[in-house]
Amino acid sequence: MSGGKLRVVIAEDGVIVREGVAGMLQQFGHEVVAAVGDAEELLKAVVEHRPDVVVTDMRMPPGFSDEGLQATIALRAENPDLPVLLLSQYVEQTYARELLESGPSSGLGYLLKDRVGDVADFIGALEAVVAGRTIVDPEVVRQLLARRQGPLDRLTAREREVLGLMAEGRSNAAIARELVVTDAAVAKHINSLLTKLDLPPDADDHRRVRAVLAYLRG
Questions:
Q1: Based on CB atoms within 10 Å of each CB, which residue in 86, 89, 160, 172 is the most buried?
Q2: Considering the domain boundaries, does residue 205 fall inside one?
Q3: CATH code of the domain covering residue 15
Q4: 10 Å Cβ neighbour count for 118?
């Protein structure tokens, strides 16, 4: 459904952020069918409206811990095909791992709220999640990579950079544009790093991203 009108449920306790995201989505032709302030209301809204995608904060009332995460896990357990874009004020490595370990990673996104300020990036991430991609914030990827030991030590600096972009859901062409190299160079780096990580090369971008994230999950 990427590129068409999306029916969106937003869950965010901060009124300014909630209204800002809603206004941004409406500006791009999407319909906000519900905008709620806590996880309980989020669960109810999804049952009532059956949205195309959910955008939810990580921390919400009443505990302001991982209510958004737990709601996401519950929603995806009920409907694994429901795309969800999870937002967080800070890098929550424990929560990121729990999210990625909770089930299939396709149609799932984890972004820092700072990215919401970049309208094009945010809308692009939302539509990518709806299209079945896995989107992980670059800073989250960087910290996850920094904490991993073992096979990652075999990678060159450029291969680690490519791996990070892969984990964000980037295609070969997008990685080439980002790094200002040829598509052939990107393909060579990917084949090399997948071999070093004992992950078989795969031409399918979605399966490739899931394989990388599976490795990051440990």
A1: 86
A2: yes
A3: 3.40.50.2300
A4: 11
Q: Are 112 and 85 in contact (CB under 8 A)?
A: no
The CA distance from 153 to 196, in Å, is: 10
Q: Quick count: other Cβ atoms within 10 Å of Cβ 67? A: 22
Enclosing H/E stretch for 26: helix 15-27
Q: Is the peptide bond before 201 cis (omega within 30 degrees of 0)?
A: no
CATH code of the domain covering residue 153? 1.10.10.10
Indicate if 68 and 20 belong to the same structural domain: yes
Rounded Cα–Cα distance for residues 142 and 86 (Å): 18
User: pLDDT tens for residues 4-57?
Assistant: 799 999 999 999 889 999 999 999 999 999 999 999 999 999 999 999 999 999
Closest CA to 27 of 12, 5, 54, 56: 5
- What pTM was estimated for this model as a whole? 0.78
Q: Quick check: 74 and 44 in contact, CB under 8 A?
A: no
**Which burial class, exposed, middle or buried, applies to 29 when counting CB atoms under 10 A from its CB (0-12, 13-18, 19+)?**
exposed
CB neighbour list of residue 128: distance below 8 Å, 6 or more residues apart: 2, 109, 135, 169
Burial of 5: CB neighbours in 10 Å, binned 0-12, 13-18, 19+: exposed
